[in-house]
Design a protein that fits this description.
Layout (H helix, E strand, L loop, with lengths): L2 H29 L23 E2 L41 H4 L67 H5 L4 H15 L6 H13 L3 H19 L4 H15 L8 E2 L8 E6 L6 H14 L4 E6 L4 H14 L2 E4 L6 H15 L3 E6 L7 H14 L7 E7 L4 H13 L4 E5 L9 H9 L3 E5 L7 E3 L2 H9 L1
Parallel strand pairs: 1-2, 3-6, 3-7, 4-5, 4-6, 7-8, 8-9
Antiparallel strand pairs: 9-10
Helix pairs in contact: 4-5, 5-6, 6-7, 7-14, 8-9, 10-11, 12-13
Bound molecules: guanosine-5'-triphosphate (GTP).
The site of guanosine-5'-triphosphate (GTP) has 21 residues, from helix 8.
């Protein structure tokens, strides 16, 4: 080999090494996105929504079997129906439904559900009024058919509450999301704004989303969308990254879904809303809060206390009702929940009220018999009027367990909306994303506290803004 050949070989090898080095640097740069701090941070954003819960009356008069609502297709802006928007609304002082409720109901009202069931006390497995392990469907609780009792309602005039204006309610409640905000706001934005985003940073972003209870599928989706957008749009500042994160999270929440609560009368009959969920999630509280919102809008409301497991639950509901001047129909403790619901709707129809809200018993979703009973409540009510809304109440603090409940309830009744309660008490506000994905049904309302007016409409943009802080 001549010296010239050797020199050429060295030159070629050196050139190849140089090309490889340059390529490596370029690739590495592409994977790392440098984020620089903006000159000054934007002021923290919170719930900036209009803040009103919208109500809706279903368009066609549904007969007994209602079509499956395709919520995504109903993406158009909610049908324009009165919003609860007018500030300080004096609660209606007129006794809303007392005249129709007052006729004595001594006659049995349970014909539609009254197949007699043998259920001697000795065969009952429960001993304390609560279902016990293993007593599923074998011994239905609703065997004993008792009549309805007339309940003396307290003097209304002195009991009627001032109801907080619903307008701007979200704004007032935004601080309640502080625990979730610290996960999202400090965690996620801290990561995105920290500088270079390498593979380790993306892993941290994933972990943060998982910790906030977004679940793995949605986390993957969010991270993939963020990576793609950041790469393609050449984002360089943490402010840009933040706005992309906002857009991606809002997109995953499907802001186009119709979140109006179907609680307005139609076809000459009241709207019927069933409130379902397992024990202790906040059904009664939510029913009471919703009644207040409706009453504040000048609607007449009748409450059905179909939670006959616990006498205290009916008392609790009645108290909520009496505070806003809404009457309550209740049965004796242990009465058939379906017959109480039937009676409530019947009286609501007779009285011409706008809305009948039926609070059902806490269903242990693993109890087949109890779930069957819930299906029966709905079927029986539908002999009187269409059920317009089935609100499934889920406790946000229970995380994945809430998802399991959601699946089981969706099998038994056609859930049309989700109420996520206790979002004020959890750092895992991300459960909203999963629950909605799981059921394909919109989260319509959120509970942000124990106060009477701590119920807010769920609005994706405002919610994400509040989470990001
Ligand atoms: N912090 C907080 N507490 C809530 C919220 N909603 C309900 N609660 C509380 O949760 C507890 C249970 O609420 P209930 O309305 O009795 O629940 P339930 O589902 O009707 O319970 P059962 O009648 O046993 O089936 C009560 O102490 C409520 O005040 C909320 O949004 N935030």
């Amino acid at each position: 080999m001549t010296t010239t050949t050797l020199i050429w070989i060295i030159v070629v090898v050196a050139a190849l090494l140089l090309v490889a080095l340059v390529t490596g640097v370029v690739l590495s740069r592409r994977r790392r996105i440098s984020l620089t701090e903006p000159e000054q941070d934007k002021p923290a954003q919170g719930y900036r929504a209009g803040g009103a819960i919208t109500f809706n009356a279903p368009a066609p008069p549904p007969v007994v079997e209602r079509p499956e609502p395709d919520l995504v297709e109903k993406a158009a802006p909610p049908v324009a129906e009165p919003r609860i928007a007018t500030p300080p609304v004096p609660p209606p002082v007129t006794p809303p439904v007392s005249p129709p409720v007052s006729p004595p109901v001594s006659e049995p009202v349970v014909e539609p559900v009254a197949e007699p069931v043998e259920h001697p006390v000795a065969e009952r497995t429960e001993v304390d009024g609560q279902p016990g392990v293993g007593d599923d469907a074998a011994v239905p609780r609703d065997s004993a058919k008792r009549g309805f009792v007339e309940v003396e309602l307290p003097e209304q005039a002195s009991e009627i509450d001032e109801i907080e204006p619903t307008e701007g309610r979200l704004e007032r409640l935004r601080g309640r999301l502080s625990r979730s905000r610290s996960t999202f706001g400090q965690g996620l934005l801290g990561l995105l704004g920290a500088g270079d985003l390498d593979e380790d940073s993306w892993t941290d972003v994933e972990d943060t989303l998982l910790m906030a209870d977004l679940g793995s599928a949605i986390t993957d989706e969010v991270v993939a969308a963020l990576r793609e957008q950041i790469a393609s749009r050449g984002v360089r500042t943490s402010d840009d990254a933040r706005s992309m994160l906002r857009d991606v999270l809002v997109g995953v929440l499907h802001p186009e879904m119709n979140r109006a609560v179907n609680a307005l009368p139609h076809s000459g009959k009241p709207a019927v809303v069933l409130v379902v969920g397992v024990n202790g999630v906040g059904k009664t509280t939510t029913t009471g809060k919703l009644a207040r919102v409706l009453v504040a809008d000048g609607r007449t409301v009748l409450l059905g206390a179909a939670d006959t497991f616990r006498a205290a639950a009916a008392d609790q509901l009645e108290t909520w009702g009496s505070r806003v001047g809404a009457s309550t129909v209740r049965g004796a403790e242990g009465a058939d929940p379906a017959s109480v619901a039937f009676e409530a709707v019947k009286r609501g129809v007779d009285a011409g009220v706008d809305t009948v809200l039926v609070d059902t018993a806490g269903r242990l979703h693993t109890k087949t018999g109890l779930m069957d009973e819930l299906g029966k409540v709905k079927r029986v009510v539908e002999k009187q009027a269409a059920v317009d809304e089935v609100l499934l109440v889920l406790d946000a603090t229970t995380g994945q367990n809430g998802l399991t409940q959601a699946r089981v309830f969706a099998d038994v009744v056609n859930v049309t909306g989700i109420v996520l309660t206790k979002l004020d008490g959890t750092a895992k506000g991300g459960i909203v994303f999963q629950v909605q994905r799981e059921l394909g049904v919109p989260v319509k309302l959120v509970g942000l506290g124990e106060g009477a007016d701590d119920l807010a409409p769920f609005e994706p943009h405002a919610f994400v803004d509040a989470l990001l802080g």
